[in-house]
Amino acid sequence: MSRVSLRVANLRVHYRTLRGDVKALDGATFTVGDGEIMGLAGESGSGKSTLGKSLIRLDGRMRHVEGSVELDGKELPIWDSARMNTFRFREVSIIPQYAMSAMNPTRRIGRMVAELVESRGVGFGTVRPELERRLDLVQLSRDVLDSYPIELSGGMKQRMVMVISTLMNPSLLVADEITSALDVSTQKAVAETLVSFRDRGYVKSTIVITHDVSLVYQIADTIMVMYAGKLAEKAPTDVLVAAPRHPYTNLLISSLPEVGVRFSEKRLTGIPGSRPSRLQPPVGCRFRDRCPLAFEKCVEEPPFVEVERDHFVACWKAY
Which pLDDT score, from 0 to 100, does residue 267 have? Predict the structure, then answer.
């Protein structure tokens, strides 16, 4: 069994709004092992990006309510943005959502990278040879360092941001919806690059946040599914896709198109109903109003527990 790299315990993160606190992440407990690529899936608004950002603390509206995050046995001070500066890019790094807009448009890329590493106490000259090796790996010309971001295509920008985010070999990389604005062939190349970064030891563990289960199915060792700020299920990828135990996971996978199947033969099915409010979330299971298997006990909140080895579910029907 691989050593645990990331350990998250009862993490609760709210967003401050004029109407009150939005309970975006409500009691997440899970681990990610050394070398593990974990896909984090769920529909929009499930709390995926909040979980990813809370591990590096990028959003000033976020309020850490309770819970802890340990990386390689050290607790991350995620409640304190200033103290997290010590850990960002070195121990934990993020490829943010809309990463193609993340680079400073007024800076040449090489200068931007130099400013980043020098802000972490590292001379640009010492990392430039490794930077050039990684550009070669992702099939980018070294000339991009003299270019402005606007001169690169979408796929080139995405690969450049991936190189920058992993240049200091972080233990944990959070990749948030990194393929959402790319064409299919570029999506595949970017996904394969993530795997190669793990295989080459540039990162130890990776969390890939996506609404597209079919993408993480190709590259992830495990998949964790979220719904309305809660963890619903986590299992090895093949197990979760072939034999999901949570009704929401089952419906999420059933809504995906099958390769080679015509629409006239099998119509795609959505999930009826809508997500509950997270300003005043309902008691019990968050999914119960949309769940075809809901029964009386669902007014009590189901715990997120291990039902088989490495297979965790929060559903009374799964125990």
Answer: 62
